[in-house]
Amino acid sequence: MEASRLRDLIGHYGTAFAGLLLIGFFLLFAPNFASTMNIINVLKDTSFLAILALGFTLAFVVAELDLSVAEIASLAAVVCGWLVQQQYPPAAAVAAALAVGVALGSLNGFGVTVLRIPSLIMTLGTAAIAKGLAFMITQGVAFVGRWPTGFTGLARGYSFGIPNLVLWMAGATLFAYGLVKWTKTGAHMTATGEADEAARLAGIATARMKRIGLLLAGVMSAIMAVLLAANLSSAAPNMAGDYLLYAIAAVLLGMTMFDPGKPNIPGTVFAALVLKVLGNGLVLLGAPYYVQDIVLGAIIIGSVAFSASAMKKAAFKV
Amino acid sequence: MPRDNPGTTPLLSLRGIGKSYGPVVAVRDVDLDIFPGEVVALCGDNGAGKSSLIKVISGAEDATAGTMHLRGEPVSFASPHDALERGVATIYQDLALAPRLSIAQNVFMGSELTKPVLLPFLRILDKKKMIAESQRYLAQLSAAVTDMTRPVERLSGGQRQAVAISRALRWNAEIIIMDEPTAALGVKESALVLDLIRKLKADGRTVILISHNMRDVVALADRVVIMGAGRKYVDQPLGSLQADDIAHMIMAGNARAA
């Protein structure tokens, strides 16, 4: 009994504990890591990844893989930046970015549930379309300018002494967590992702749940895009592309903790933090930039292997 | 056909039910009355039409001929969930449970309980109540499980049946259709499931039991209905029938169909 409790504890919190140790290690040994400035930067950096990865998680909760999150974000950022550049009010630019997220998220949902295209394929197609549109709008160059603080402040400002980016991340986390854990819709999404035939027989509108998951992934991508553009005062057609692999790594690493084997909100957010700490710490320790990619790949593979061994079967199928 | 209980009206009544899949006729012209509180065993060899008939009764498929009355009212079910809402629950062979979700989540799947928070239109899941209610249903079935947050995959086959039945109880189902409930179970687990069915009967619920296991049928059924080649050709009280007698009747039906 005691042994099985211990195993449960390690299964639930083992990798989270390892993540804490890693953070502790950098705090002690990486030069300047512990400075307030650096910690705030890591947290800000984490928020982009966390918000994008939360969207990926919500699609994964309904057992759909959304490989278009990063390209949707790039397109939304470009649309947003273009409107800001044209001196439209920031609110209009933000609304347009969100509209991009809603439109492409809905397109994914339509493709997966109505056209019955596997999400892996559907979202790859959407990603390519979004990427093409982003280059079309910008003609391949970035929008850069002296943008109004009403817009840039969304990301660069502080409220109650806390960076706005961190507050956005907290808000997105609370929304996603509350949705999945506290609402009926969340329970239906979870049931759909876990066993869609059983959910359907229980009267759950499974196709609708899948559309909601993919829609929210699109919306989270758009929110991340607005913040990214606001933070950089620029928008480029490939600006979020690199985030896809990181988002996948965050979700998969997150699935090794708290609720092992299942996509879960606290896991995703904590894993996003660990990944960003790792990247930052390695740089501060003087590791060459390519080490990050190698570590990232190892984390993706290792996380899935961990989940599979914890469950004694394949962690998931796509 | 003579009845034990001519005074009562049937809970569920089928007249002239037929089901064809294109040119293939799976069920033809079946009349069947199910009375409140009885356990009816539906037997027959593979391909006899049992499953197709059950699909019609459970709302999984539409009949291609005939009519169905529930509590005297004409009905047709749009989906298994529609049937469930009207008190006809089907416990599927593969159980239709989500293995990694908890007992409470499975019992209340699709019909979660909520409670208001802060604002009147804002409702959140009432997990405490769902756990308490699940506990009550399982206790009613005397299933020896106490932790309602346990994932279903960690339960034994018999306990899983109890969870599936609890979902039917949650809907207060009057008619519970059980498709081969002991087929995948060992001796001890089977005994547990037979007890569950006895409890349902004692509770006044009506059970339609599809089974290949003649011993289960003899142990539980009040009435035996045998199908062959899509037709019903035996419908009689169990009386003194033994397992062998039923097996012979099934084989005789096969011979006649061939």
Topology:
The complex is a heterodimer of chains A (318) and B (258).
Chain A: H1 2-29, H2 36-61, H3 69-85, H4 90-113, H5 119-138, E1 143-144, H6 149-156, E2 158-159, E3 162-163, H7 164-182, H8 184-194, H9 196-201, H10 206-232, E4 234-235, H11 243-254, H12 265-284, H13 290-311
Antiparallel strand pairs in A: 1-4, 2-3
Chain B: E1 12-21, E2 24-34, E3 39-43, H1 50-58, E4 65-70, E5 73-74, H2 80-85, E6 88-91, H3 103-107, E7 114-117, E8 119-125, H4 127-140, H5 157-170, E9 175-179, H6 187-202, E10 206-210, H7 214-220, E11 223-228, E12 231-237, H8 243-257
Parallel strand pairs in B: 3-10, 3-11, 6-9, 9-10
Antiparallel strand pairs in B: 1-2, 1-4, 4-5, 7-8, 11-12
Helix pairs in contact in B: 4-5, 5-6, 7-8
Helices and strands of chain B, in N-to-C order?
EEEHEEHEHEEHHEHEHEEH
Total E-strand runs of chain B: 12
What Rg of chain A do the Cα atoms give? 19 Å
Low-confidence region ranges of chain A: none
Q: SSE order of chain A, as H and E?
A: HHHHHEHEEHHHHEHHH
Number of helices of chain B: 8
Overall geometry of chain B: globular
Helix content of chain A: over 70%
The count of DSSP E runs of length 2 or more, i.e. the number of strands of chain A, is: 4
Termini distance of chain B? 25 Å
Order the strands across the largest sheet of chain A as they lie in space: 1-4
Label the CATH architecture of chain A: Orthogonal Bundle
Strand content of chain B: 25-35%
Structure write-up:
The complex is a heterodimer of chains A (318) and B (258). By secondary structure, chain A is mainly alpha-helical. Chain A has helices spanning 2-29, 36-61, 69-85, 90-113, 119-138, 149-156, 164-182, 184-194, 196-201, 206-232, 243-254, 265-284, 290-311; strands at residues 143-144, 158-159, 162-163, 234-235. The model of chain A has no long low-confidence stretch (mean pLDDT 92). By secondary structure, chain B is of the alpha/beta class. Chain B has helices at residues 50-58, 80-85, 103-107, 127-140, 157-170, 187-202, 214-220, 243-257, and strands spanning 12-21, 24-34, 39-43, 65-70, 73-74, 88-91, 114-117, 119-125, 175-179, 206-210, 223-228, 231-237. In chain B, the strands form three sheets. In chain B, strands 6-9-10-3-11-12 form a six-stranded mixed beta sheet, with helices on both faces. In chain B, strands 2-1-4-5 form a four-stranded antiparallel beta sheet, with helices on one face. In chain B, helix 4 (127-140) crosses helix 5, helix 5 (157-170) runs parallel beside helix 6 and helix 7 crosses helix 8. Chain B is globular, with a radius of gyration of 19 Å. Chain B starts with 11 loop residues before the first strand and ends with a helix. The mean pLDDT of chain B is 87. Chains A and B meet through helix 8 and helix 9 of A and helix 2 and strand 8 of B.
